[in-house]
Design a protein that fits this description.
The protein is α/β, with parallel strands linked by helices. It is built from 7 helices and 4 strands. The relative contact order is 0.19. Strands 3-2-1-4 form a 4-stranded parallel β-sheet. It has helices at residues 17-24, 30-37, 47-61, 67-80, 91-95, 107-122, 133-141, and strands at residues 12-15, 41-45, 84-87, 127-129. The chain has one domain (10-141): Rossmann fold (3-Layer(aba) Sandwich).
Protein backbone atom coordinates (compact mmCIF):
# COMPACT_ATOMS: atom_id res chain seq x y z
CA UNK A 1 0.00 0.00 0.00
CA UNK A 2 1.59 3.28 -1.05
CA UNK A 3 1.54 6.24 1.26
CA UNK A 4 0.19 9.48 -0.16
CA UNK A 5 1.76 12.80 0.71
CA UNK A 6 -1.41 13.65 2.64
CA UNK A 7 -0.62 10.74 5.00
CA UNK A 8 2.89 11.99 5.80
CA UNK A 9 3.49 14.54 8.54
CA UNK A 10 4.49 17.91 7.13
CA UNK A 11 7.42 18.25 9.52
CA UNK A 12 10.17 15.86 10.58
CA UNK A 13 12.02 16.49 13.82
CA UNK A 14 15.15 14.74 15.03
CA UNK A 15 15.27 14.84 18.84
CA UNK A 16 18.44 14.30 20.79
CA UNK A 17 18.26 13.17 24.41
CA UNK A 18 18.50 16.67 25.92
CA UNK A 19 15.36 17.78 24.10
CA UNK A 20 13.48 14.59 24.89
CA UNK A 21 14.33 14.70 28.61
CA UNK A 22 13.19 18.33 28.79
CA UNK A 23 9.77 17.20 27.62
CA UNK A 24 9.63 14.00 29.67
CA UNK A 25 10.67 15.74 32.89
CA UNK A 26 8.53 18.81 32.28
CA UNK A 27 11.53 21.14 32.46
CA UNK A 28 11.44 24.82 31.57
CA UNK A 29 10.58 25.25 27.90
CA UNK A 30 8.88 21.88 27.46
CA UNK A 31 5.55 23.47 26.52
CA UNK A 32 7.12 25.34 23.61
CA UNK A 33 8.86 22.19 22.38
CA UNK A 34 5.70 20.09 22.67
CA UNK A 35 3.77 22.67 20.67
CA UNK A 36 6.41 22.82 17.93
CA UNK A 37 6.61 19.03 17.64
CA UNK A 38 2.85 18.46 17.69
CA UNK A 39 1.76 16.58 14.58
CA UNK A 40 5.31 16.12 13.31
CA UNK A 41 7.23 12.93 12.73
CA UNK A 42 9.67 12.28 15.59
CA UNK A 43 13.02 10.75 14.68
CA UNK A 44 15.95 9.65 16.80
CA UNK A 45 18.59 7.05 17.46
CA UNK A 46 18.20 4.09 19.80
CA UNK A 47 20.90 5.96 21.73
CA UNK A 48 18.06 8.16 23.04
CA UNK A 49 16.62 5.14 24.88
CA UNK A 50 19.98 4.32 26.47
CA UNK A 51 20.76 7.89 27.48
CA UNK A 52 17.26 8.70 28.73
CA UNK A 53 16.99 5.58 30.90
CA UNK A 54 20.51 6.12 32.28
CA UNK A 55 19.69 9.73 33.15
CA UNK A 56 16.46 8.71 34.87
CA UNK A 57 18.36 6.18 37.01
CA UNK A 58 20.94 8.85 37.88
CA UNK A 59 18.23 11.35 38.84
CA UNK A 60 16.56 8.71 40.99
CA UNK A 61 19.81 7.75 42.72
CA UNK A 62 20.59 11.43 43.32
CA UNK A 63 17.11 11.73 44.86
CA UNK A 64 16.01 14.32 42.32
CA UNK A 65 13.19 11.95 41.34
CA UNK A 66 11.13 10.04 43.88
CA UNK A 67 10.51 6.33 43.32
CA UNK A 68 7.03 7.13 42.00
CA UNK A 69 8.34 9.87 39.68
CA UNK A 70 11.03 7.50 38.42
CA UNK A 71 8.46 4.80 37.61
CA UNK A 72 6.21 7.37 35.93
CA UNK A 73 9.11 8.59 33.79
CA UNK A 74 10.17 5.06 32.82
CA UNK A 75 6.56 4.30 31.85
CA UNK A 76 6.43 7.57 29.92
CA UNK A 77 9.63 6.69 28.08
CA UNK A 78 8.25 3.28 27.06
CA UNK A 79 5.01 4.86 25.91
CA UNK A 80 6.70 7.73 24.06
CA UNK A 81 8.88 5.36 22.05
CA UNK A 82 5.78 4.32 20.10
CA UNK A 83 5.72 7.84 18.62
CA UNK A 84 9.32 7.71 17.36
CA UNK A 85 10.93 6.33 14.26
CA UNK A 86 14.20 5.06 15.76
CA UNK A 87 17.35 4.12 13.85
CA UNK A 88 19.66 1.45 15.23
CA UNK A 89 23.29 2.33 15.86
CA UNK A 90 24.92 0.18 13.21
CA UNK A 91 28.41 -0.31 11.84
CA UNK A 92 27.67 1.86 8.80
CA UNK A 93 26.86 4.82 11.09
CA UNK A 94 29.81 4.15 13.38
CA UNK A 95 32.24 3.87 10.48
CA UNK A 96 30.81 6.87 8.62
CA UNK A 97 33.71 9.32 8.45
CA UNK A 98 31.67 12.51 8.69
CA UNK A 99 32.80 14.82 11.50
CA UNK A 100 31.93 18.42 12.27
CA UNK A 101 34.46 20.85 10.83
CA UNK A 102 35.59 22.41 14.13
CA UNK A 103 34.00 20.69 17.11
CA UNK A 104 34.75 17.17 18.31
CA UNK A 105 31.52 15.76 19.78
CA UNK A 106 31.40 13.11 22.48
CA UNK A 107 30.79 9.61 21.11
CA UNK A 108 27.06 9.37 21.85
CA UNK A 109 26.51 12.92 20.61
CA UNK A 110 28.28 11.94 17.39
CA UNK A 111 25.96 8.92 17.12
CA UNK A 112 22.98 11.30 17.27
CA UNK A 113 24.54 13.59 14.66
CA UNK A 114 25.31 10.79 12.23
CA UNK A 115 21.85 9.31 12.71
CA UNK A 116 20.25 12.70 12.07
CA UNK A 117 22.34 13.06 8.91
CA UNK A 118 21.19 9.63 7.77
CA UNK A 119 17.53 10.62 8.26
CA UNK A 120 18.20 13.98 6.56
CA UNK A 121 19.67 12.23 3.52
CA UNK A 122 16.61 9.96 3.25
CA UNK A 123 14.18 12.87 3.46
CA UNK A 124 14.98 16.37 4.71
CA UNK A 125 14.37 16.93 8.40
CA UNK A 126 12.72 20.15 9.52
CA UNK A 127 14.90 20.63 12.56
CA UNK A 128 17.54 18.94 14.70
CA UNK A 129 16.14 19.59 18.18
CA UNK A 130 18.68 19.85 20.98
CA UNK A 131 19.09 21.90 24.14
CA UNK A 132 22.83 21.23 24.21
CA UNK A 133 24.66 24.27 22.85
CA UNK A 134 27.75 22.30 21.75
CA UNK A 135 25.55 19.71 20.03
CA UNK A 136 23.67 22.47 18.23
CA UNK A 137 26.93 23.96 17.00
CA UNK A 138 28.16 20.58 15.75
CA UNK A 139 24.83 19.99 13.99
CA UNK A 140 25.12 23.37 12.25
CA UNK A 141 28.67 22.51 11.16
CA UNK A 142 27.28 19.39 9.50
CA UNK A 143 24.58 21.38 7.71
CA UNK A 144 21.66 20.15 9.77
CA UNK A 145 18.79 22.60 10.32
CA UNK A 146 18.92 23.63 13.98
CA UNK A 147 17.01 26.92 14.23
Amino acid sequence: MSESTADKPAKRFYLDTSAYLCILLGEAGHEVLEQELKGGQLLSSVVLVLEASRNLVRLSRDRVLTAVEFQDCISGLRSDLQQFLLRDLTLDLCGYEVMPVVSTPRSLDLAHLRTALWFHQQEKITRFVTLDEAQGLAARELGLPVD
